[in-house]
Amino acid sequence: MQTWDVLYTNVHLATMVDGYGEILDGAIAVKDGRIAWLGPRAALPASACPVVDGGGCWLTPGLIDCHSHIVHAGNRSDEFEARLNGASYEDISKAGGGIMSTVRATRAASDDELLRQSLPRVASLLAEGVTTLEIKSGYGLSLESEEKMLRVARRVGQVLPVAVATTFLGAHALPPEYAGRADAYIDLVCEQMLPALAGAGLVDAVDAFCERIGFSAAQTERVFRAARAHGLPVKLHAEQLSDQGGSELVARYDGLSADHLEHLTPAGIAAMAAHGTVAVLLPGAYYFLRDTQPPPVAALRAAGVALAVATDCNPGTSPMTSLLLAMNMACTLWRLTPREALAGCTIQAAKALGLQTQVGSLELGKRADFALWHIARPADLAYAIGFNPCRGVVNGGVWREPVVSLPA
Fold this sequence. Notes:
single chain; eight-stranded parallel β-sheet
């Protein structure tokens, strides 16, 4: 007689192991916050535990947003308007807008104010079945403000039912006090910021913006060397606006992921394939910036590079808080299949965070994070626009309603 904590029955399982990994009329059991059994309901062993009837819904792994800048202050709707009147992203950045606009607002916000502004954005993701969320820093650009952002990111996971992975993105932009002294700022990132933040236990991974308006490949490599010295994995904003060889660089450091990739070259694809670096596709930024250069999805697929999908939630280029919409965009804009899109927000997104042994698929021993959907088939999650069929979420074995309450 099995003594599980809870058993979910009358559900169709999309395990995301080997495609959708469908188990029709299935069941899944939880013990101590982990998946203890799953399979067809007809094969259930005898058990004595509470039973939850899933009402014939589909059950998938909890969704994972593996690239977000969701903790920030202020917004940039003024820049949105400027772009629609002809200004480019680079024009706005050079005029003191762009990332620096958010830096000023974020530096000025207290911890509590920064958390207050960020929580509604996170809650929108959780309402759509997200159970794991990556949150980057990068809008502080000083030790004090980067630490504040990462502290608040950790607090998000304490006050809301979501697992948070933090990423230090100190090399996001050059702060005004270091104008014309990019190498000196990288010194600060590598020699002061990273040691202090890693020592405080606030960093799970390290990222950088390798771009003409960001940092060079040589400067990015210095950041990567410092990260490796602290035992931290790396990832990279690569080839979004131009080819800077970033994807090859991050792959050489066995990076978790290279993200954006609109200007990715065959050499970059080969390097990522050789080192198992995940391609994180960010259709929100592509759409919002009205880009016309798509990432080479077919070539990435042919090379066997894992494809993840994320919101890139940020105030300037992707103010999107819907992972379901990101899935639809990846399919309609870049021809991902619905199966690839769902895998991109589950098993492949877990790989992009280095968490594939813990989450991302329904397998024995993995964390009991999953979402219940009132849908006819898994493809529905990427198909409908503006429709949320989430009926419930389980975080570490604990059931919750899809809409979460925010602290007062």
